[in-house]
Every structure is written in C-alpha cells, then in structure tokens.
Design goal:
This protein is α+β, with helices and mostly antiparallel strands. About 30% of the residues lie in helices and about 25% in strands. A hairpin with a 7-residue loop joins strand 7 and strand 8. Helix 1 crosses helix 2. The termini are far apart.
C-alpha cells in the first residue's frame, strides 16, 4: 500500500518551509500536483510530482537529531525576525527546529531536528519521558518546600504531576519532570514564595550534557537514537491516557478550590442567631391582616 502524506507535510519534510508556510503556498496557488492545482488537505504519494512556483522540491533530507547546550539569552523559536533565535545560534546548514523549549533566561540541554513526527512523541507527558534540571532560588530551602514541589503544585488550572525533587545545597535543588507546562518550574517556585535565580536542564531521557560546553551542539549518536525510538515506540497508545489524566487533575483542582471557597464563605457568614439579634422582623397577624414589628 502506498504511503500518503498531507501535501503541507510532504512539502515541509523536504525542508522547503514549515507546514504553515506550505499551506500559504497552496492557498496562493503556487503549488501544483501532477500539473494541477490541489485543494487544501489533499494527500500525495512519493511518486506524485509536486512543484512550488514551477520548480521541483528537493529530496527529503537525511534525518537530523541534535543535542544543543543552550546559553542564557537564546530564544527557542524559528522566527527569523527575533535576532536571538535558536536556529540562528546553532547555524545548521539545513532547516531544523527545536523539540520543546527552554525559557530565554534558562540554559541547558535541548534537542533540535528536521523530523516533525518525533516531536510530539517526545514531548507527550503521558509517556513519562524524564527531563532533569538543576535550579537555584533566592532564599534557603526547607523540607516543606521539597515535599510540596514533589507532591504537585496547582498552576495553570491543573496540578503538576508528582516528581522527584532533591535538595543539593542551601538554595539549590534538582528536579526530574515528566511534563512540560509553560514556565513550569518557575511557576511552581513562585507558588511557594520562591524566585528562580538560575535554571539549567542537564538531561532529556537518556541524553545528558556530558562533553557539551555552553553554546556547543552535537549530533545524537545511533545508540542514543535507538534508545529514544524504543521509548517512544508506543507513544500513540498513551496519548488518550495522558489527556484523561490532565482532565482529571484539572477537575480535582476546580473541585478543591470550590470547596475552599465554600468553607471560607461559611466561616465569614454570621450565624442565624447573630443575624436575627436586635434586627426588626415583620410578622403577619393572620386574623387581622396587619403587620407588626418585633424586636
């Protein structure tokens, strides 16, 4: 059976442009498939002749997987208008893009690739792919901080998944996450009244920063990729479970917040006895139909 791909992905896989940009080319009528202008969403095979502006696309390039030790100040985006973008910093000859992101003020390990299919499989939280960080904060840590960070923190309308946290210094700790919420570690620390001073990712799954100086990159080895591919082989099977877990966590947070709201409201509400004390109330005399005020 012939493998079919959506046209925008077919174009993107050659390294010509992103899928979004490919959609624009198709919409503008600049793409032909076998001499005809295609509709949006059409699927094509490797045997089809796809031209952009009347020119054939390059052959699909060799898959590229890069480990990069991102310095502070580099932005994890492919937007060319942003001078500090990660693609410009790596300066790889072919089109690549980051897998996930690290905040601009953060540093450490990040993957880049030209293969779109692998991105979601690695990032999908339901697969429990570990990412390890070394973090320093603005004031001394205590056991309560470590326990709460490890047990889950309510941020972004959900509760973070349980994780491993180890204090390694007066103001330093390591944390191993299996999810990647926006600015997750910083938000978790802020919730507990701490501010992150430095944040460095030292490991993603089976790959570490060993041998990589800040600003350097290298290709992942065949052995590293074999382990990664083995760990994401069943990725699709865990997607639904991950979504269900996130929905349940969100529901639990909302339920807990609502209970706190009710308890707070009840604690602030005057008792019935206090409400009625020295307060006039109207009572009706059935026989006369008149009203009288009782104190």
């Amino acid at each position: 059976m012939t493998d079919l791909k959506r046209l925008n992905k077919f174009i993107s896989d050659t390294g010509f442009c992103s899928r979004r940009e490919a959609d624009k080319y198709i919409e503008d009528g600049r793409v032909t498939v076998n001499g005809k202008r295609p509709e949006m969403g059409v699927k094509v095979a490797a045997s089809d002749v796809v031209l952009v502006d009347g020119k054939p696309l390059k052959q699909v390039p060799k898959r590229v997987y890069i480990a990069y030790n991102k310095p502070v100040g580099i932005t994890c985006t492919t937007e060319r208008k942003i001078q500090s973008n990660i693609v410009k910093a790596v300066n790889y000859p072919d089109r690549i893009f980051p897998i996930g992101r690290l905040d601009r003020p953060s540093e450490g390990l990040i993957f880049l690739t030209n293969e779109g299919d692998i991105v979601n499989k690695i990032l999908r939280a339901g697969n429990n792919h570990e990412k390890e960080y070394v973090v320093t904060v603005d004031k001394p840590l205590n056991r309560q901080f470590v326990n709460k960070m490890a047990g889950g923190i309510p941020i972004l309308d959900t509760v973070t998944k349980k994780c491993k946290v180890t204090q390694t210094g007066a103001k330093e700790f390591t944390i191993i996450l299996t999810q990647g919420l926006n600015r997750q570690i910083r938000r978790m620390c802020e919730y507990l009244g701490y501010e992150v001073v430095t944040l460095k990712r030292t490991r993603i799954m089976n790959v570490t920063l060993k041998g990589l100086k800040v600003g350097q990159w290298r290709h992942l080895t065949e052995q590293e990729m074999a382990q990664i591919n083995d760990s994401i082989a069943d990725s699709g099977k865990t997607e639904e479970r991950s979504i269900d877990e996130n929905k349940q966590a969100t529901a639990d947070v909302k339920k807990r917040d609502f209970q706190k709201y009710v308890e707070k409201a009840q604690s602030q509400q005057p008792s019935k006895a206090n409400k009625s004390f020295n307060k006039p109330r109207a009572t009706a005399k059935r026989r006369t139909g008149t009203l009288s005020l009782k104190k």
